Amino acid sequence: xxxxxxxxxxxxxxxxxxxxxxxxxxxxxxxxxxxxxxxxxxxxxxxxxxxxxxxxxxxxxxxxxxxxxxxxxxxxxxxxxxxxxxxxxxxxxxxxxxxxxxxxxxxxxxxxxxxxxxxxxxxxxxxxxxxxxxxxxxxxxxxxxxxxxxxxxxxxxxxxxxxxxxxxxxxxxxxxxxxxxxxxxxxxxxxxxxxxxxxxxxxxxxxxxxxxxxxxxxxx
Amino acid sequence: xxxxxxxxxxxxxxxxxxxxxxxxxxxxxxxxxxxxxxxxxxxxxxxxxxxxxxxxxxxxxxxxxxxxxxxxxxxxxxxxxxxxxxxxxxxxxxxxxxxxxxxxxxxxxxxxxxxxxxxxxxxxxxxxxxxxxxxxxxxxxxxxxxxxxxxxxxxxxxxxxxxxxxxxxxxxxxxxxxxxxxxxxxxxxxxxxxxxxxxxxxxxxxxxxxxxxxxxxxxx
Amino acid sequence: xxxxxxxxxxxxxxxxxxxxxxxxxxxxxxxxxxxxxxxxxxxxxxxxxxxxxxxxxxxxxxxxxxxxxxxxxxxxxxxxxxxxxxxxxxxxxxxxxxxxxxxxxxxxxxxxxxxxxxxxxxxxxxxxxxxxxxxxxxxxxxxxxxxxxxxxxxxxxxxxxxxxxxxxxxxxxxxxxxxxxxxxxxxxxxxxxxxxxxxxxxxxxxxxxxxxxxxxxxxx
Amino acid sequence: xxxxxxxxxxxxxxxxxxxxxxxxxxxxxxxxxxxxxxxxxxxxxxxxxxxxxxxxxxxxxxxxxxxxxxxxxxxxxxxxxxxxxxxxxxxxxxxxxxxxxxxxxxxxxxxxxxxxxxxxxxxxxxxxxxxxxxxxxxxxxxxxxxxxxxxxxxxxxxxxxxxxxxxxxxxxxxxxxxxxxxxxxxxxxxxxxxxxxxxxxxxxxxxxxxxxxxxxxxxx
DNA sequence: TATGAATGAGATTTCATTCAT
DNA sequence: CATGAATGAAATCTCATTCAT
Lengths: 220, 220, 220, 220
Prior knowledge:
4 copies of one chain form a homotetramer.
Chain A: H1 20-40, H2 46-53, H3 57-63, H4 67-92, H5 96-109, H6 128-150, H7 160-171, H8 186-197
Helix pairs in contact in A: 1-2, 1-4, 2-3, 4-5, 4-6, 5-6, 5-7, 5-8, 7-8
Chain C binds a DNA duplex through helix 1 and helix 3.
């Protein structure tokens, strides 16, 4: 299993020193931002995120010069963790459909909805770090679905993009509800959706299977 | 079929004069607000709504003294139209599951996601107009589901609340996508969800069936 | 004499209504901004300008969305007044060199230094209003200098740009001094410069005569 | 010729160690600060000066505890160099007016405008180092002017303060122009001003000759 | 000593709401 | 009634200065 974002510096490199407290602050800000963004939407005041992270607001600006950058880093952060969940499900769950379900529910709990900003028009899909992380998630989730389709337990007319979109939509916080845990039906409706994915297909789907790359198209 | 929100004044009442342009302005504001709220979330500046509606901002305030009121009226506006869609589906579609599907897809197109603010903590569920509209929608949609369950084409462990929530979530515009039409996979994923609703049930669902009334609970 | 910026609306035009108080506020802001910008440089807090003008800060933003716009309008405002001074000097002062001196000292008192931002790299020289005002000032000041040169009282190797630049430089507030009136030597040094302009030329000048258009070149 | 600011420690003193890199850093900061202050005014962020000097911001603070101190040292730095230029002109240029011109143009190139902060209300004129450097510059520049006036080539109604002020004003970078070299007309207008200084006087000057000491008066 | 990081105070800008025409 | 203008409060962002490594 490869963690993408935690790129280790080459041994003997000249980068001065990462300074422990700065790293810890960065982590704390990312974690706080993920919660705030998922729970309260993209409009949370920066000061609130800073307070939740326990740092001054200017510290937040030092690490993430603007909102776009912060969101971008949160996406990377969550994507990395979700990728790990998919790898775990594949490795530990022998039944193909069970693996898919395990992944889906775990990803919802891991706030996969935080990946939604990727779909935004102004999201930078060319960023190298994102491309790498994205490819990793794409690879493992395609493996997850292919396994199910080859085993004949997953309908053939769906692709990873379908899963990712619906997963994100269904696990997004309902407006006005304070946090994800306060929406106990997420797992219910997710399970209904997963039942719809199970083979044999029960109806014809409009449109074509959505791949991961489709999500990067500006023109959806 | 009863339209709830267009309450006609009692005959012989003394309400001065409805003034044609005021009525037209109210309609334009409601339509504009529905689009803006669904597309850009609850944070759209009032001035933007006013501009989209083609009226001055103060006119908007004259019709809707505050954001809460405006949102409330938009909910009523959409709820009324969605109710009509359910009635039409029931009346014109002989097959029970086909009726459900027709309703779901039509409601998505009608921006049923604009009902989400109902789930917000600060939404006033005691308002008489809302109670009436709500009861009407509840009645017809329960009839829609009951028909399907009695016909054995709809799994028995789901209720209207499940449908409404998931429908809203799946049809909400993805962040950054300007309008619903720009998200062509909404109907794909909605259909997958509908396939999950079809009997026989393929897996056990966590939690209990969600009724319409469950959605009014402040503590979700 | 033609005032350029105070463009009168065509009779019978459809522009709604200028609203007296808004016009008065705009005037007050422009006057206040001219003083603050000339006295304290381009970094004066917007709130200070608003306070000096006696309006709320947001009112300032309504009239001038950003600092660039405000500065631009101040330039137009001052340019118009300086143009009028040149016209007056030409019309009322029979002696050519006396007219030039009268104009120079009056322009210094009128804060011609406020035109300095025109020389900045990010100043928009393409704006139609500015082009018109600029042409008017150019025309009258060239007439002013040509008169002197034809009368043989003004050295021939200088052009309007030379006058404008030096005039602006010499009348700019010295850093740290509160206001122009507190720099009583402005008129002394201006007169020394004017003496240097008088014919016959006492030394050869480096470079070429600077025209008005030269000042618009980004590459100075 | 006495260099004032490079005060050598008394022989036998106990100052620990000058540390070569600290001295070099101090030089680099002073040079960078002179450029930034002259080019972008007194408002340049400290961090920018530090970046331009190639040191960390805290290093800047170690050498110069606050902005006032930094500006003060820059003034001393430039004053010392300008004094040297005046001495050179006097020593090497036999013609009195030529010496004045040579000095003026050289001082402009040496950024004499960096002395302007001396005129600021909050500048400390009592500092011993400054008093010494100031006296030295005053002495040599008075000698420069007296020579010219005794030779009858420089008008009698001007004093060193007039020269210093006008020189500073005319050589200050125009707003938006990045560096002095980008303003090719500085020497043109300076020469015009010098022509105005030449005897015989062509007009009467308002005000009285400005001495060096006049510039120290808080109330100008 | 040199430095990057942290921070609060203040500057800039936006927006919901009220006011005057 | 309809509207553009005005406004304070809050959000975003910058920067001089201090701190910790």
